[in-house]
Amino acid sequence: MTASPEAAVLTRVAELFRDAPADRGGALWRLAADGRQLDANVVRLGPDARVAVHVEPDLDVLLYVVDGTGRLDPGEGDGHGERELGAGAVVWLPRGARRGVVAGAAGLAYLTVHRRRPGLSIRSAPASPAAVAERDTRARATGSGAGGEPVCLLNRVCPECGRLAPDDSDVRFCGRCGSRLPSD
Q1: pTM of the full predicted structure?
Q2: Burial 45-71 (b: 16+ CB within 10 A, else e)
């Protein structure tokens, strides 16, 4: 019988600040529990430091400002869309949105929370257009159906989150949650 997960206090932010040198920036704490579905970090930026504007294509991120001031920078270059940040602000950063963070004169500390990224995997290079055309021609000639899809896709369905894996025989782990896919 496996043990049930238990709730736990993982850290105390005030202690993180007390124990880390005042000039230390970056991640002061990271969620590291085994089997978790979330990632979380407490990040501190020094005075006027910044996280460069970028686009996160896959994950929504929730940001909670713990201490200090700064601004959210959408990278428009004209100040349009910038949002002031201060202690207690809760910010939703939707996937696909341009975002950067700029600390104020006294620095900025914040907690981020998002769905856990799956582990890295090595995949085959995408098929060339010629290879795709040849595969489809073979499928039509052998009667295996339009596009060559197999009748049963259960070996490509993640048992944890239900996501359908891409049609790639080298994929062994779910791209959403990182769980091992069923064997053929």
Answers
A1: 0.60
A2: bbeebebeeeeeeeeebebbbbbbbbb
